[in-house]
Amino acid sequence: MTSHLQWAQHVPPGWSVKPLRAVSDYVVSNVDKVPVEGEQAVRLCNYSDVYNNEFITQQLEFMVSTATQDEIRKFGLLVDDVIITKDSESWDDIGVPALVVETGDDLVCGYHLALLRPRASSLSGRFLLRCLQARLLRLQLELAANGVTRFGLPKSDIGSMQLPVPPLAIQVAIAEYLDRETARLDALVAAKQRVLDLLGEKRKSIIATAVRRGFDTKVKVRDSGVPWLGEIPAHWEIRKVGYLSKVGNGSTPERDKAAYWSDGFFPWLNSSVVNQDEVTSSDQFVSETALRECHLPRLQPGTVLVAITGQGKTRGQAVVLSIEATINQHMAFVAPNPKLIDSWFLRWSFYRAYDYLRSISDDAGGTKGALTCEDVASLRIPVPPLDEQQAIVAQIGSETAKLHAVRGATERTIALLKERRGAVIAAAVTGRLDVAAA
Protein backbone atom coordinates (compact mmCIF):
# COMPACT_ATOMS: atom_id res chain seq x y z
CA MET A 1 0.00 0.00 0.00
CA THR A 2 1.38 3.43 -0.96
CA SER A 3 2.50 5.72 1.84
CA HIS A 4 -0.34 8.21 1.40
CA LEU A 5 -2.85 5.42 2.09
CA GLN A 6 -1.26 4.15 5.31
CA TRP A 7 -4.23 5.54 7.27
CA ALA A 8 -6.46 2.93 5.57
CA GLN A 9 -4.71 0.10 7.45
CA HIS A 10 -5.66 1.53 10.83
CA VAL A 11 -9.36 2.39 10.69
CA PRO A 12 -11.37 1.21 13.73
CA PRO A 13 -13.27 -2.08 13.81
CA GLY A 14 -16.64 -1.76 12.10
CA TRP A 15 -15.33 0.82 9.62
CA SER A 16 -14.60 0.07 6.00
CA VAL A 17 -12.48 1.71 3.30
CA LYS A 18 -14.22 2.13 -0.05
CA PRO A 19 -13.68 4.00 -3.31
CA LEU A 20 -15.84 7.10 -3.60
CA ARG A 21 -17.75 5.54 -6.52
CA ALA A 22 -19.10 2.87 -4.12
CA VAL A 23 -20.79 5.39 -1.83
CA SER A 24 -21.39 8.48 -3.97
CA ASP A 25 -22.44 9.48 -7.47
CA TYR A 26 -20.25 12.06 -9.18
CA VAL A 27 -20.23 14.15 -12.35
CA VAL A 28 -17.87 16.69 -13.88
CA SER A 29 -19.60 19.91 -14.88
CA ASN A 30 -19.30 21.41 -18.36
CA VAL A 31 -21.55 24.42 -17.76
CA ASP A 32 -19.51 27.49 -18.68
CA LYS A 33 -20.08 31.15 -17.88
CA VAL A 34 -21.13 32.30 -21.37
CA PRO A 35 -24.91 32.89 -21.66
CA VAL A 36 -26.60 31.28 -24.67
CA GLU A 37 -29.78 32.68 -26.17
CA GLY A 38 -32.74 30.35 -25.74
CA GLU A 39 -31.36 28.58 -22.68
CA GLN A 40 -32.82 28.97 -19.20
CA ALA A 41 -31.43 31.58 -16.82
CA VAL A 42 -29.55 30.03 -13.89
CA ARG A 43 -27.22 30.98 -11.07
CA LEU A 44 -23.81 29.38 -11.42
CA CYS A 45 -21.84 28.10 -8.47
CA ASN A 46 -18.34 28.72 -9.81
CA TYR A 47 -14.78 27.80 -8.82
CA SER A 48 -14.29 30.84 -6.56
CA ASP A 49 -17.56 30.15 -4.73
CA VAL A 50 -16.29 26.69 -3.82
CA TYR A 51 -12.66 27.59 -3.21
CA ASN A 52 -13.48 30.50 -0.88
CA ASN A 53 -16.40 29.03 1.07
CA GLU A 54 -16.77 25.95 3.24
CA PHE A 55 -20.55 25.98 2.80
CA ILE A 56 -22.71 26.93 -0.20
CA THR A 57 -25.71 28.96 0.94
CA GLN A 58 -28.30 31.23 -0.65
CA GLN A 59 -26.49 34.22 0.84
CA LEU A 60 -23.60 33.93 -1.63
CA GLU A 61 -23.66 36.15 -4.71
CA PHE A 62 -23.66 33.76 -7.66
CA MET A 63 -23.02 34.63 -11.30
CA VAL A 64 -26.10 34.67 -13.53
CA SER A 65 -25.79 32.74 -16.79
CA THR A 66 -27.78 30.15 -18.76
CA ALA A 67 -27.98 26.36 -19.06
CA THR A 68 -29.97 23.75 -20.94
CA GLN A 69 -32.70 21.72 -19.27
CA ASP A 70 -30.44 18.63 -19.43
CA GLU A 71 -27.60 20.55 -17.75
CA ILE A 72 -29.92 21.80 -15.01
CA ARG A 73 -31.12 18.24 -14.33
CA LYS A 74 -27.59 16.88 -14.34
CA PHE A 75 -25.72 19.64 -12.50
CA GLY A 76 -28.44 21.27 -10.38
CA LEU A 77 -27.39 21.42 -6.73
CA LEU A 78 -29.14 19.59 -3.89
CA VAL A 79 -28.67 19.93 -0.15
CA ASP A 80 -25.89 17.59 1.06
CA ASP A 81 -24.03 17.67 -2.27
CA VAL A 82 -20.29 18.26 -2.05
CA ILE A 83 -18.56 20.24 -4.81
CA ILE A 84 -14.80 20.03 -5.38
CA THR A 85 -12.34 21.99 -7.48
CA LYS A 86 -11.29 19.87 -10.45
CA ASP A 87 -8.90 22.18 -12.30
CA SER A 88 -6.39 24.69 -10.96
CA GLU A 89 -3.11 26.46 -11.63
CA SER A 90 -1.70 24.74 -8.55
CA TRP A 91 -1.86 20.99 -7.90
CA ASP A 92 -2.47 21.50 -4.18
CA ASP A 93 -5.67 23.43 -4.94
CA ILE A 94 -7.21 20.31 -6.48
CA GLY A 95 -10.08 18.69 -4.55
CA VAL A 96 -10.92 21.67 -2.31
CA PRO A 97 -14.50 20.99 -1.14
CA ALA A 98 -17.63 22.92 -0.22
CA LEU A 99 -20.89 21.49 1.14
CA VAL A 100 -24.26 22.60 -0.21
CA VAL A 101 -26.44 23.47 2.79
CA GLU A 102 -28.95 25.69 0.96
CA THR A 103 -29.93 25.67 -2.69
CA GLY A 104 -32.57 26.67 -5.24
CA ASP A 105 -34.10 25.28 -8.41
CA ASP A 106 -31.89 27.58 -10.51
CA LEU A 107 -28.56 26.91 -8.77
CA VAL A 108 -26.19 24.93 -10.99
CA CYS A 109 -22.63 23.62 -10.61
CA GLY A 110 -20.26 25.44 -12.97
CA TYR A 111 -17.23 24.54 -15.05
CA HIS A 112 -13.88 23.37 -13.53
CA LEU A 113 -15.79 21.67 -10.71
CA ALA A 114 -16.99 18.16 -9.90
CA LEU A 115 -20.30 17.47 -8.18
CA LEU A 116 -20.36 14.64 -5.63
CA ARG A 117 -23.74 13.34 -4.47
CA PRO A 118 -23.41 10.94 -1.50
CA ARG A 119 -25.83 8.04 -1.39
CA ALA A 120 -27.87 8.68 1.74
CA SER A 121 -27.82 5.03 2.78
CA SER A 122 -24.01 4.96 2.90
CA LEU A 123 -22.48 8.40 3.25
CA SER A 124 -23.24 11.75 4.87
CA GLY A 125 -22.41 14.87 2.88
CA ARG A 126 -21.09 16.58 6.02
CA PHE A 127 -18.80 13.65 6.70
CA LEU A 128 -17.62 13.64 3.06
CA LEU A 129 -16.84 17.37 3.36
CA ARG A 130 -14.59 16.70 6.32
CA CYS A 131 -12.89 13.77 4.59
CA LEU A 132 -12.01 16.02 1.67
CA GLN A 133 -10.74 18.70 4.05
CA ALA A 134 -8.30 16.19 5.51
CA ARG A 135 -5.08 16.67 3.60
CA LEU A 136 -3.93 13.08 4.00
CA LEU A 137 -7.12 11.98 2.17
CA ARG A 138 -7.29 14.77 -0.41
CA LEU A 139 -3.68 14.08 -1.32
CA GLN A 140 -5.02 11.24 -3.48
CA LEU A 141 -6.73 13.79 -5.73
CA GLU A 142 -3.78 16.16 -5.76
CA LEU A 143 -1.42 13.39 -6.87
CA ALA A 144 -3.86 12.28 -9.56
CA ALA A 145 -4.03 15.73 -11.16
CA ASN A 146 -2.33 16.04 -14.54
CA GLY A 147 -0.59 19.08 -16.01
CA VAL A 148 2.42 21.37 -15.96
CA THR A 149 1.22 24.99 -15.83
CA ARG A 150 -2.42 24.07 -15.19
CA PHE A 151 -3.64 20.94 -13.47
CA GLY A 152 -6.77 18.89 -14.14
CA LEU A 153 -8.25 15.94 -12.28
CA PRO A 154 -9.46 13.00 -14.41
CA LYS A 155 -13.01 11.94 -13.61
CA SER A 156 -11.97 8.30 -13.10
CA ASP A 157 -9.56 9.30 -10.33
CA ILE A 158 -12.37 11.01 -8.43
CA GLY A 159 -14.26 7.74 -8.32
CA SER A 160 -11.12 5.83 -7.31
CA MET A 161 -10.44 7.99 -4.26
CA GLN A 162 -10.36 5.81 -1.14
CA LEU A 163 -12.54 6.98 1.74
CA PRO A 164 -13.01 5.83 5.35
CA VAL A 165 -16.64 4.75 5.73
CA PRO A 166 -17.83 4.27 9.32
CA PRO A 167 -21.46 3.45 10.13
CA LEU A 168 -23.79 6.38 9.39
CA ALA A 169 -24.44 7.10 13.08
CA ILE A 170 -20.71 7.49 13.64
CA GLN A 171 -20.39 9.68 10.53
CA VAL A 172 -23.06 11.99 11.95
CA ALA A 173 -21.36 12.09 15.36
CA ILE A 174 -18.00 12.92 13.79
CA ALA A 175 -19.52 15.63 11.60
CA GLU A 176 -21.33 17.22 14.56
CA TYR A 177 -18.16 17.16 16.65
CA LEU A 178 -16.13 18.72 13.85
CA ASP A 179 -18.78 21.40 13.29
CA ARG A 180 -18.37 22.44 16.93
CA GLU A 181 -14.59 22.14 17.07
CA THR A 182 -13.89 23.90 13.78
CA ALA A 183 -16.30 26.70 14.74
CA ARG A 184 -14.37 27.19 17.98
CA LEU A 185 -11.01 27.23 16.21
CA ASP A 186 -12.34 29.48 13.44
CA ALA A 187 -13.54 31.98 16.04
CA LEU A 188 -10.05 32.08 17.54
CA VAL A 189 -8.53 32.60 14.09
CA ALA A 190 -11.03 35.38 13.35
CA ALA A 191 -10.10 37.14 16.58
CA LYS A 192 -6.42 36.95 15.71
CA GLN A 193 -7.17 38.16 12.18
CA ARG A 194 -8.86 41.23 13.65
CA VAL A 195 -5.62 41.92 15.50
CA LEU A 196 -3.75 41.71 12.19
CA ASP A 197 -6.23 44.09 10.59
CA LEU A 198 -5.75 46.60 13.41
CA LEU A 199 -1.97 46.30 13.12
CA GLY A 200 -2.24 46.90 9.38
CA GLU A 201 -4.34 50.02 9.91
CA LYS A 202 -1.91 51.30 12.53
CA ARG A 203 1.05 50.74 10.16
CA LYS A 204 -0.77 52.49 7.34
CA SER A 205 -1.57 55.45 9.60
CA ILE A 206 2.04 55.78 10.80
CA ILE A 207 3.42 55.80 7.25
CA ALA A 208 0.73 58.07 5.80
CA THR A 209 1.19 60.65 8.57
CA ALA A 210 4.99 60.54 8.37
CA VAL A 211 5.09 61.05 4.60
CA ARG A 212 2.54 63.86 4.74
CA ARG A 213 3.62 65.72 7.89
CA GLY A 214 6.79 64.16 9.29
CA PHE A 215 7.00 63.52 13.03
CA ASP A 216 7.16 67.15 14.23
CA THR A 217 3.64 67.85 15.47
CA LYS A 218 4.36 71.58 15.94
CA VAL A 219 5.64 72.31 12.45
CA LYS A 220 3.97 75.07 10.45
CA VAL A 221 1.91 73.70 7.58
CA ARG A 222 0.49 74.84 4.24
CA ASP A 223 -1.86 73.44 1.63
CA SER A 224 0.05 71.14 -0.71
CA GLY A 225 -2.21 71.83 -3.69
CA VAL A 226 -2.52 68.06 -4.13
CA PRO A 227 -6.09 66.96 -3.26
CA TRP A 228 -5.21 63.44 -2.07
CA LEU A 229 -2.35 64.76 0.06
CA GLY A 230 -3.74 67.78 1.94
CA GLU A 231 -1.52 69.93 4.15
CA ILE A 232 2.27 69.49 4.38
CA PRO A 233 5.00 71.25 6.37
CA ALA A 234 5.52 74.76 5.00
CA HIS A 235 9.20 74.17 4.20
CA TRP A 236 8.57 71.03 2.11
CA GLU A 237 8.34 71.12 -1.67
CA ILE A 238 5.97 69.36 -4.04
CA ARG A 239 7.67 67.71 -7.01
CA LYS A 240 6.70 65.32 -9.77
CA VAL A 241 8.25 61.87 -9.52
CA GLY A 242 9.70 62.34 -13.01
CA TYR A 243 11.67 65.37 -11.78
CA LEU A 244 13.19 63.33 -8.96
CA SER A 245 13.76 60.05 -10.81
CA LYS A 246 14.14 58.25 -14.09
CA VAL A 247 10.98 56.29 -14.93
CA GLY A 248 10.60 53.39 -17.38
CA ASN A 249 9.57 49.75 -17.58
CA GLY A 250 10.80 46.38 -18.79
CA SER A 251 9.69 43.45 -20.93
CA THR A 252 9.23 39.69 -21.01
CA PRO A 253 11.65 37.91 -23.36
CA GLU A 254 10.06 35.21 -25.54
CA ARG A 255 9.70 32.11 -23.41
CA ASP A 256 10.31 29.72 -26.27
CA LYS A 257 13.59 31.36 -27.27
CA ALA A 258 16.21 29.38 -25.36
CA ALA A 259 18.93 31.98 -25.91
CA TYR A 260 17.03 34.36 -23.64
CA TRP A 261 16.63 32.01 -20.67
CA SER A 262 19.18 29.18 -20.89
CA ASP A 263 22.16 29.80 -18.64
CA GLY A 264 20.45 32.96 -17.41
CA PHE A 265 22.37 34.81 -14.72
CA PHE A 266 20.68 38.21 -14.38
CA PRO A 267 17.63 38.40 -12.03
CA TRP A 268 14.34 39.03 -13.84
CA LEU A 269 11.29 40.02 -11.79
CA ASN A 270 7.54 39.96 -12.32
CA SER A 271 4.98 42.12 -10.54
CA SER A 272 4.36 39.64 -7.71
CA VAL A 273 7.40 41.13 -5.95
CA VAL A 274 5.53 44.35 -5.14
CA ASN A 275 3.68 42.59 -2.34
CA GLN A 276 6.94 42.64 -0.37
CA ASP A 277 8.61 45.66 1.23
CA GLU A 278 11.99 44.87 -0.28
CA VAL A 279 13.23 42.68 -3.14
CA THR A 280 16.28 40.70 -2.07
CA SER A 281 16.21 37.72 -4.48
CA SER A 282 14.75 36.32 -7.70
CA ASP A 283 13.77 32.87 -8.93
CA GLN A 284 14.02 33.71 -12.65
CA PHE A 285 17.07 34.76 -14.63
CA VAL A 286 17.73 36.02 -18.15
CA SER A 287 20.82 35.84 -20.34
CA GLU A 288 23.13 38.51 -21.66
CA THR A 289 21.46 38.06 -25.05
CA ALA A 290 18.07 38.88 -23.54
CA LEU A 291 19.44 41.96 -21.82
CA ARG A 292 20.89 43.18 -25.09
CA GLU A 293 18.05 42.33 -27.48
CA CYS A 294 14.90 42.77 -25.38
CA HIS A 295 15.48 46.30 -24.10
CA LEU A 296 15.65 45.16 -20.50
CA PRO A 297 16.87 47.82 -18.05
CA ARG A 298 19.75 46.97 -15.72
CA LEU A 299 18.32 48.31 -12.47
CA GLN A 300 20.49 49.14 -9.50
CA PRO A 301 19.76 48.64 -5.78
CA GLY A 302 17.68 51.52 -4.49
CA THR A 303 15.34 51.54 -7.49
CA VAL A 304 11.63 51.57 -6.59
CA LEU A 305 9.36 49.24 -8.55
CA VAL A 306 5.67 50.06 -9.06
CA ALA A 307 3.09 47.61 -10.42
CA ILE A 308 1.23 49.30 -13.27
CA THR A 309 -1.14 46.45 -14.12
CA GLY A 310 -2.65 43.60 -12.15
CA GLN A 311 -5.76 42.43 -10.38
CA GLY A 312 -6.52 42.42 -6.68
CA LYS A 313 -4.32 44.73 -4.65
CA THR A 314 -1.23 44.50 -6.87
CA ARG A 315 -1.69 47.49 -9.18
CA GLY A 316 -0.25 50.62 -7.54
CA GLN A 317 1.86 48.72 -5.01
CA ALA A 318 5.56 49.67 -4.74
CA VAL A 319 8.71 47.99 -3.45
CA VAL A 320 12.38 48.84 -3.01
CA LEU A 321 14.89 46.83 -5.05
CA SER A 322 17.94 45.75 -3.02
CA ILE A 323 19.68 43.74 -5.74
CA GLU A 324 20.70 44.40 -9.32
CA ALA A 325 17.84 43.14 -11.51
CA THR A 326 15.55 43.73 -14.47
CA ILE A 327 11.75 43.66 -14.72
CA ASN A 328 8.81 42.77 -16.93
CA GLN A 329 6.43 45.16 -18.67
CA HIS A 330 3.88 45.08 -15.86
CA MET A 331 6.06 47.22 -13.60
CA ALA A 332 7.53 50.68 -13.83
CA PHE A 333 10.97 51.31 -12.43
CA VAL A 334 11.61 54.58 -10.63
CA ALA A 335 15.35 55.17 -10.28
CA PRO A 336 15.71 58.09 -7.84
CA ASN A 337 18.32 60.82 -8.00
CA PRO A 338 20.04 60.22 -4.63
CA LYS A 339 20.78 63.97 -4.32
CA LEU A 340 17.07 64.73 -4.39
CA ILE A 341 15.18 61.89 -2.77
CA ASP A 342 15.79 58.85 -0.57
CA SER A 343 14.70 55.51 -2.06
CA TRP A 344 12.71 54.49 0.98
CA PHE A 345 11.05 57.88 1.34
CA LEU A 346 10.03 57.53 -2.31
CA ARG A 347 8.68 54.05 -1.66
CA TRP A 348 6.63 55.26 1.30
CA SER A 349 5.36 58.16 -0.82
CA PHE A 350 3.96 55.64 -3.30
CA TYR A 351 2.46 53.76 -0.36
CA ARG A 352 0.69 56.97 0.70
CA ALA A 353 -0.47 57.58 -2.89
CA TYR A 354 -1.79 54.02 -3.39
CA ASP A 355 -5.51 54.89 -3.28
CA TYR A 356 -4.98 57.79 -5.68
CA LEU A 357 -3.02 55.61 -8.11
CA ARG A 358 -5.79 53.01 -7.99
CA SER A 359 -8.42 55.64 -8.70
CA ILE A 360 -6.72 57.00 -11.83
CA SER A 361 -6.15 53.50 -13.16
CA ASP A 362 -9.72 52.28 -12.65
CA ASP A 363 -12.35 52.26 -15.39
CA ALA A 364 -13.28 55.86 -14.71
CA GLY A 365 -9.68 56.97 -15.17
CA GLY A 366 -7.62 57.62 -18.26
CA THR A 367 -6.35 54.05 -18.78
CA LYS A 368 -8.71 51.19 -18.10
CA GLY A 369 -7.36 48.92 -15.40
CA ALA A 370 -3.75 50.07 -15.73
CA LEU A 371 -1.25 52.80 -14.95
CA THR A 372 1.30 54.10 -17.42
CA CYS A 373 4.87 55.23 -16.90
CA GLU A 374 3.58 58.73 -17.61
CA ASP A 375 1.08 58.40 -14.75
CA VAL A 376 3.90 57.40 -12.43
CA ALA A 377 6.25 60.16 -13.61
CA SER A 378 3.58 62.85 -13.27
CA LEU A 379 2.62 61.87 -9.71
CA ARG A 380 3.21 64.84 -7.41
CA ILE A 381 4.67 63.96 -4.02
CA PRO A 382 5.97 65.89 -0.98
CA VAL A 383 9.75 66.39 -0.80
CA PRO A 384 11.33 67.38 2.53
CA PRO A 385 15.04 68.25 2.72
CA LEU A 386 17.11 65.09 2.19
CA ASP A 387 18.31 64.82 5.78
CA GLU A 388 14.72 65.11 7.00
CA GLN A 389 13.64 62.41 4.53
CA GLN A 390 16.24 60.06 5.99
CA ALA A 391 15.17 60.89 9.56
CA ILE A 392 11.53 60.18 8.66
CA VAL A 393 12.49 56.85 7.04
CA ALA A 394 14.41 55.87 10.18
CA GLN A 395 11.46 56.78 12.41
CA ILE A 396 9.04 54.82 10.23
CA GLY A 397 11.39 51.83 10.50
CA SER A 398 11.49 52.11 14.27
CA GLU A 399 7.73 52.48 14.71
CA THR A 400 6.75 49.74 12.27
CA ALA A 401 9.34 47.30 13.65
CA LYS A 402 7.34 47.15 16.88
CA LEU A 403 4.18 46.36 14.95
CA HIS A 404 6.03 43.80 12.84
CA ALA A 405 7.05 41.86 15.94
CA VAL A 406 3.45 41.68 17.15
CA ARG A 407 2.27 40.75 13.65
CA GLY A 408 4.80 37.92 13.46
CA ALA A 409 3.66 36.45 16.76
CA THR A 410 0.00 36.75 15.75
CA GLU A 411 0.60 35.11 12.37
CA ARG A 412 2.39 32.21 14.07
CA THR A 413 -0.59 31.74 16.37
CA ILE A 414 -2.97 31.71 13.40
CA ALA A 415 -0.79 29.14 11.62
CA LEU A 416 -0.83 26.90 14.70
CA LEU A 417 -4.62 27.19 15.02
CA LYS A 418 -5.08 26.26 11.35
CA GLU A 419 -2.66 23.38 11.75
CA ARG A 420 -4.64 22.23 14.77
CA ARG A 421 -7.87 22.47 12.76
CA GLY A 422 -6.46 20.28 10.00
CA ALA A 423 -5.07 17.75 12.46
CA VAL A 424 -8.38 17.42 14.32
CA ILE A 425 -10.31 16.89 11.10
CA ALA A 426 -7.86 14.24 9.85
CA ALA A 427 -7.81 12.40 13.17
CA ALA A 428 -11.59 12.37 13.46
CA VAL A 429 -12.45 11.14 9.96
CA THR A 430 -9.86 8.35 10.05
CA GLY A 431 -10.92 7.14 13.49
CA ARG A 432 -7.73 8.11 15.33
CA LEU A 433 -9.78 10.48 17.49
CA ASP A 434 -12.69 9.07 19.49
CA VAL A 435 -15.17 11.93 19.25
CA ALA A 436 -17.39 10.39 21.92
CA ALA A 437 -14.57 10.79 24.42
CA ALA A 438 -13.26 14.14 23.08
How would you characterize this protein structure?
This protein has 438 residues and is of the alpha+beta class. The chain has three domains: 3-166, Adenine-n6-DNA-methyltransferase TaqI, Chain A, domain 2 (Alpha-Beta Complex), CATH 3.90.220.20; 167-195 and 389-438; 215-383, DNA methylase specificity domains (Adenine-n6-DNA-methyltransferase TaqI, Chain A, domain 2), CATH 3.90.220. The chain contains 14 helices and 25 strands. The protein has a five-stranded mixed sheet with strand order 2-10-6-8-4. Helix 4 (125-133) packs across helix 14 and helix 7 crosses helix 11.
CATH fold name of the largest domain, please?
Adenine-n6-DNA-methyltransferase TaqI, Chain A, domain 2
Query: SS-based structural class?
Result: alpha+beta
Task: Give start-end ranges of low-pLDDT stretches.
Answer: none
- Strand tally is 25
Q: Give the class-level CATH name of the largest domain.
A: Alpha Beta
Helix content: 25-40%
Looking at the structure, what is the overall shape? elongated
- Determine Rg (CA atoms, Å): 27 Å
How far from one another are the termini? 30 Å
Largest sheet: 5 strands, mixed
What amount of the residues lies in strands?
15-25%
Tally of individual helices: 14
CATH homologous superfamily assignment of the largest domain? DNA methylase specificity domains
Number of domains: 3
Q: From the 3D coordinates, which CATH architecture of the largest domain would you assign?
A: Alpha-Beta Complex
